[in-house]
Amino acid sequence: MHKTDSKEFCKDAAGQLHRAEVETVLITRNGEPAWALVSFEVFSQLRRGNRNALKVSDLSDEDVAGIRDARMSPQHNHLDSELGNDGES
User: Fold this and answer.
1) What percentage of the chain reaches a pLDDT higher than 70?
2) What total of structural domains would you count in the chain?
3) Residue 8 domain-assigned?
4) Is 57 helix (H, G, I), strand (E, B) or coil?
5) What residues make up the domain containing 14?
6) Rounded CA separation 36/40 (Å)
7) What letter does residue 28 receive in the DSSP assignment?
8) CB 37 within 8 A of CB 27
9) How confident is residue 86, by pLDDT bands cut at 50, 70 and 90?
10) For residue 30, what is the domain's CATH number?
11) Domain annotation covers residue 19
């Protein structure tokens, strides 16, 4: 993903449009994300709701271990109370 501010985007709109053909262009305003410029192909996929789904059997042992061992960042521990558990499996 390429990041640019709105002023820089305006200076080189044509270049940024070309860049969006190969990667998302994130345009910021006052340092905060404001727009995302994507190719029409990506936009169409998003509109169709395309999702890439894999069967567990298609995952490598390394991928399965990574998912199994993944832990949520401690900054989100407060969300466990919404699940009605202490976050332990």
Assistant:
1) 94
2) 1
3) yes
4) helix
5) 1-71
6) 12
7) E
8) yes
9) low
10) 3.40.1620.10
11) yes
**Chain segment 15-41, per-residue pLDDT in tens:** 999 999 999 999 999 999 999 999 999
HSE, side-chain direction, 13 A CA sphere, residue 81: 3
- Does any domain span residue 78? no
Q: How many residues does the chain have?
A: 89
The residue type of 78 is H
Q: Return the exposure string of 33-68: e unless at least 16 CB atoms fall within 10 Å of the residue's CB, then b.
A: eeeebbbeebeeeeeeeeeeeeeeeeeeeeeeeeee
Q: How many CB atoms lie within 10 A of CB 5?
A: 15
DSSP-derived pairing of the beta strands 25-29 and 2-5: parallel
Q: Which amino acid is at 44?
A: S
Q: What is the pTM of this model?
A: 0.54
Count the neighbouring beta carbons within 10 Å of the beta carbon of residue 85: 9
